[in-house]
Amino acid sequence: MRSRKFSKGKKFIFFLPVVALIAAALGYVVMYLWNCILPEVTHAGRINFWQALGLLVLCRILFGNFNKGNGGPGNHFREKAWGLRSKWDSMNEEERAKFKEEYKRRCGGWGHRNKE
């Protein structure tokens, strides 16, 4: 059997057109949605393709990148949750019961302060 491994150069050659195609598709989707919805709802002007791509870049700058958990703003919370899960798994039953009671004391009544 032949191995189907690509060299880094071949991967890059395929990667570049795929990124350009995805950017173009996203740009056209943003442009289409903007031009179909916002002019009638908010009386905003129509935009062209390059303005739509600019909006995508602006959203990426303001709200973070569009990755799937490889870092970024939301990753901090996933790391904390994973750390809590491993901590929970290493507790014995007595420690878990103590943790649950402390959690109920601190967070039990959402919107209501527990009187101590």
Automatic annotation (TrEMBL):
Transmembrane segments: 12-35, 47-63
Membrane is among the record's keywords: yes
Keywords attached to this entry: Membrane, Transmembrane, Transmembrane helix
Source domain of life: Bacteria
SUPFAM superfamilies: HMG-box
Protein name per Swiss-Prot or TrEMBL: Uncharacterized protein
